[in-house]
Design goal:
The protein is of the alpha+beta class. The chain contains four helices and five strands. It has helices at 2-23, 37-41, 50-57, 134-139; strands at 27-32, 62-63, 70-80, 87-98, 104-111. The radius of gyration is 30 Å and the shape is flat. The N and C termini lie far apart (100 Å).
Length: 149
């Protein structure tokens, strides 16, 4: 009987340790379209068409905003530990550019190291008009409404 009483707290402690350690294991999330390298080898610069690329790789992740002949296949793997911000551990961008005859002109691959961080600006766009106080907002319409006869 005494042996069961001392074993219970040890089992509970071991269970809590397992839960604690598993809570800190990273969560891996992969998003996007990451074509296999074998599939990329099937695309020939100057020969493959848009239809061929779609058949081999599927639809692109995005098409360039100002040039519909530039296709991007983007994939990203992030790792999140506990409550911290996700960290990008792998990123691949495959750029395929087509010429006027819809044949592959450029086939490029970029990794996480090739990317450049984009830092948003903290500037504020001024708005037209004047600053008014809360009292002016509350009482500004008094006397404006008159009865039309």
């Amino acid at each position: 009987m005494h042996n069961k009483i001392t074993r219970f707290p040890l089992v509970m402690l071991a269970g809590l340790a397992v839960v604690y350690v598993s809570a800190c294991s990273p969560r891996i999330a992969t998003r996007g379209n990451a074509p296999d390298p074998e599939l990329l080898e099937q695309i020939s610069v100057g020969e493959s068409t848009k239809g061929d690329v779609t058949d081999i790789l599927g639809s692109p992740s995005t098409i360039a905003a100002f040039d519909e002949n530039v296709w991007l296949y983007i994939s990203r793997t992030t790792e999140t530990v506990a409550f911290f911000e996700p960290e990008t551990v792998e990123q691949k961008v495959i750029l395929i550019s087509f010429d006027a005859a819809n044949r592959v002109e450029i086939l490029s691959q970029y990794d996480l190291e090739d990317g450049k961080p984009v830092i948003p600006t903290d500037r504020v766009t001024p708005t037209a008009g004047r600053e008014i106080t809360i009292l002016q907002q509350l009482f500004g319409n008094l006397g404006r409404f008159s009865e039309n006869k």
